[in-house]
Amino acid sequence: MLTGDAAFIKKMNRSLILSKIVEHKMISRAELAKMTGLNKATISVQVSDLLEKN
Fold first, then answer.
1. What is the SS3 string spanning the chain?
2. How far apart are the first and last CA of the chain?
3. pTM beyond 0.70
4. Each residue's pLDDT tens digit, 37-50
5. Left, alpha or beta for 33 (phi > 0: left; psi -120 to 50: alpha)?
6. Structure confidence by residue, pLDDT tens digits, 1-30
């Protein structure tokens, strides 16, 4: 199992989420969770942060 610091993991998750948003344009948080394998809480936190930053 690979491990890393929290900041690195957050960046990797965000990159994965952003790539799916760009690829699919309109996509729900639930769909993002299914496509990325990330849990719904992670998706929610990341998407909320992205929306806050526009």
1. CCCCCHHHHHHHHHHHHHHHHHHHCCCCHHHHHHHHCCCHHHHHHHHHHHHHHC
2. 34
3. yes
4. 999 999 999 999 99
5. alpha
6. 556 688 899 999 999 999 999 999 999 999
| Residue in 53, 1, 51, 24 with CA at minimum distance from that of residue 16 | 24
The answer for residues whose C-beta is within 8 angstroms of residue 8's C-beta and 6 or more apart is: none
Euclidean distance between CA atoms 4 and 51, whole angstroms: 26
Q: Phi and psi dihedrals of 28, rounded to 5?
A: -80, 165
Q: Give CA–CA dist 31/9, Å, rounded.
A: 20
